[in-house]
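Example record

One chain of 287 residues, shown exactly as stored in the release files.
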Amino acid sequence: MKKISIFIIFIIFILLFTVIFFIFKNKFNFNIVNKFLNNSCNKKICYDSLQKCSSTNGYIYDDSKKDSVIDRKTYKCVINNNDKFKLIKLDNIFVPSIMNGTYCDILYTTYYDYSDFYVLKNRINSLNIPLPKCIRIRKYFFQPGIYFEIKFPGGTKIRTLIDEHYNIVDLESVETENKDMIISILNKIKENKIKPIFYNTYKRLSFIYKRNPSIRITIDCNIEFNYNNLYHIMDIDIVEFKIPKNISVDQCQIMIDEISSLTNIPLKYTSFSKFEYYYYNVIMNQK
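Predicted structure tokens for this chain:
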């Protein structure tokens, strides 16, 4: 009888220790996320002091299974700077999507175009010229690798790893029908026929929706633009819902209505592009 009592006390002690450990661990993780979001970073000065964001409740994202062609819909909502703190408290909806030990990161993106902004004009003016709507190279603060990305109207994105000399790292991983196009654009970058038109840096938190890994949600904040001494920082944040094409608009609306009702944030889908934002709010304002 005495042995049973000792065993029960031991089990209770282990359970209490586990609960206390997770409470402190979650509090520690929450403090790191708050520091990540609250530190104001002008021209990337504060990034070296930031830490990875971990979670005991996260989904482990496996990038090795990622296709070179991503075909999905993306819906965006513009929110005020303080609204992101309300959103991330909904941890039953915003489940951290963890890659390489973190669900927060800093993205460094360089956008490319011809010297006459041919890609951008085709996109903005709907000229229907068979060109991508976006050409960019992206790096991450906490993740290895350099990504070359081409986006097309309708939501298709082609993505492949490149080296610092604009060469594809693994040719076998690129689908045959896209290989020549990617190599052609990279060669034009090498030849300076396609040039960087601006740099974009921002913090990102990544989630999946209610543990459904096919629906991704990202929150982008501290969004900065810089090129040729033209610096601009946005005073708003962007929430992106990255959704499979087989999910209807009505289903998406139900999703954001639920989030809106729980946070009192009037989320509305809007047509927003960082690429176009920079053109209209920075380049055009300098003319």
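Notes: The first strand starts at residue 59 and ends at 60.
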